[in-house]
C-alpha cells in the first residue's frame, strides 16, 4: 500500500481505489474537486515528492509541478500540497 500525505491535513493509505482523489475523499480529506474526470483542473495539487501514474488522459493540463488527483494513482508514497 502507498501512503498519501497532504501537507497540513495528514495522511491516508491508497489501497486500490480508482484514483488518489477517491482515496483522499473516502478518508475525509477536504480536497478540492468538481468534475472528477480531468476536465476542470479543480483537483490540481502540487506533487512535492513521489511518483504517480496517470490512469486517464485529462483534458485540463496542470502546471509542470502539479497533478490532477482525479486522474492519477500513486506509485509508492507521495507528498502533496494544495495550492
TrEMBL record:
InterPro entries: 2Fe-2S_ferredoxin-like_sf, 2Fe-2S_ferredoxin-type, 2Fe2S_fd_BS, Beta-grasp_dom_sf. Residues 2-83 form the 2Fe-2S ferredoxin-type domain. Its cofactor is [2Fe-2S] cluster. Keywords: 2Fe-2S, Electron transport, Iron, Iron-sulfur, Metal-binding, Transport. One of its GO terms (molecular function) is metal ion binding. PANTHER family: FERREDOXIN (PTHR43112), FERREDOXIN-2, CHLOROPLASTIC (PTHR43112:SF3). Belongs to the 2Fe2S plant-type ferredoxin family. This is 2Fe-2S ferredoxin-type domain-containing protein. It comes from Thiosulfatimonas sediminis.
